[in-house]
From TrEMBL:
<comment type="function">
    <text>Catalyzes the conversion of uracil and 5-phospho-alpha-D-ribose 1-diphosphate (PRPP) to UMP and diphosphate.</text>
</comment>
<feature type="binding site">
    <location>
        <begin position="133"/>
        <end position="141"/>
    </location>
    <ligand>
        <name>5-phospho-alpha-D-ribose 1-diphosphate</name>
    </ligand>
</feature>
<comment type="pathway">
    <text>Pyrimidine metabolism; UMP biosynthesis via salvage pathway; UMP from uracil: step 1/1.</text>
</comment>
<keyword id="KW-0460">Magnesium</keyword>
<keyword id="KW-0547">Nucleotide-binding</keyword>
<dbReference type="GO" id="GO:0006223">
    <property type="term" value="P:uracil salvage"/>
</dbReference>
<dbReference type="GO" id="GO:0000287">
    <property type="term" value="F:magnesium ion binding"/>
</dbReference>
<dbReference type="GO" id="GO:0004845">
    <property type="term" value="F:uracil phosphoribosyltransferase activity"/>
</dbReference>
<protein>
    <recommendedName>
        <fullName>Uracil phosphoribosyltransferase</fullName>
        <ecNumber>2.4.2.9</ecNumber>
    </recommendedName>
</protein>
<feature type="binding site">
    <location>
        <position position="81"/>
    </location>
    <ligand>
        <name>5-phospho-alpha-D-ribose 1-diphosphate</name>
    </ligand>
</feature>
<keyword id="KW-0021">Allosteric enzyme</keyword>
<dbReference type="GO" id="GO:0005737">
    <property type="term" value="C:cytoplasm"/>
</dbReference>
<feature type="binding site">
    <location>
        <position position="106"/>
    </location>
    <ligand>
        <name>5-phospho-alpha-D-ribose 1-diphosphate</name>
    </ligand>
</feature>
<dbReference type="InterPro" id="IPR000836">
    <property type="entry name" value="PRTase_dom"/>
</dbReference>
<dbReference type="InterPro" id="IPR005765">
    <property type="entry name" value="UPRT"/>
</dbReference>
<comment type="similarity">
    <text>Belongs to the UPRTase family.</text>
</comment>
<feature type="binding site">
    <location>
        <position position="202"/>
    </location>
    <ligand>
        <name>5-phospho-alpha-D-ribose 1-diphosphate</name>
    </ligand>
</feature>
Length: 211
């Protein structure tokens, strides 16, 4: 696993909230709130290098030079279903971002991603895309989603997941070494049925109360 282009967020608030998410007794409501809060905290790191442009601002005292985000050029793209839970926390910090959706589910037997929906901003090539999904397990879903984004013209993609494992990080890095990966936790491994260990179980089911 290469360390370039991989950022694991070590902030104490993120570590504490991820631990609460892992707890099997955390309720659906609490789980959703934690996904939302951690996504917002991660946004600080994910957007660290985005471009600014100078603007003039008049304060009550004088005129000075400040900054605004350069253009309205970001897009947030969740991988459905579980990725939806990460949108609000990021969108409220970047309200000018457009939101696209990619629907994928993992076939339970093959673990291969199956596409069922794709609705993306038409001007994707001029936007910095933040692709979000709570779990990076085999990496199959993230790789498929990045492939779809690139096919539709995306030039800049960042991948943000809450919990990942070395197998998933390596898989993405092998195919798309240029895509920066942001994680709130890097776990030990995948188990024999494709779940992250220690992980937090099935993120979609825990977020929506399904089984
Ligand atoms: C989960 C998760 C990721 C995928 C990760 O989704 O939200 O999309 O698995 O696994 P991978 O790295 O091995 O591809 P799932 O397929 O369970 O669908 P859901 O979000 O609809 O629950
Ligand atoms: N998808 C999940 O929701 N959890 C895992 O541990 C692996 C894939």
């Amino acid at each position: 696993m290469k360390q370039d282009n991989l950022t694991v967020i070590t902030h104490p608030l993120v570590k504490a909230k991820i631990t609460q998410m892992r707890d099997k007794n955390t309720t659906t409501k609490e789980f959703g709130e934690l996904v939302d809060e951690i996504s917002g905290l991660m946004c600080y790191e994910i957007t660290r290098n985005i471009e600014l442009e100078e603007i003039e601002v008049e304060t009550p005292i004088t005129t000075t030079i400040g900054y605004k985000l350069k253009g309205n050029d970001m897009a947030i793209v969740p991988i459905l279903r579980a990725g939806l839970g990460m949108v609000k926390g990021i969108h409220q910090l970047i309200p000018t971002a457009k939101v696209g959706h990619i629907g994928l589910y993992r076939d339970h037997d093959t673990l291969q991603p199956v596409e069922y929906l794709c609705k993306l901003p038409t001007d994707l090539e001029s936007r910095d895309v933040i692709l979000v999904d709570p779990m990076l397990a085999t990496g199959g879903s993230a790789i498929k989603a990045i492939e779809i984004l690139k096919d539709k013209g995306a030039k800049s993609v960042r991948l943000a997941c809450l919990v990942g494992c070395p197998e998933g990080v390596e898989a993405v890095q092998n195919v798309y070494p240029e895509v920066p990966i942001f994680l709130a936790a890097l776990d030990e491994k995948l188990n024999e049925i494709g779940y992250i260990v220690p992980g937090l179980g099935d993120a979609g089911d825990r977020l929506y109360g399904t089984k």
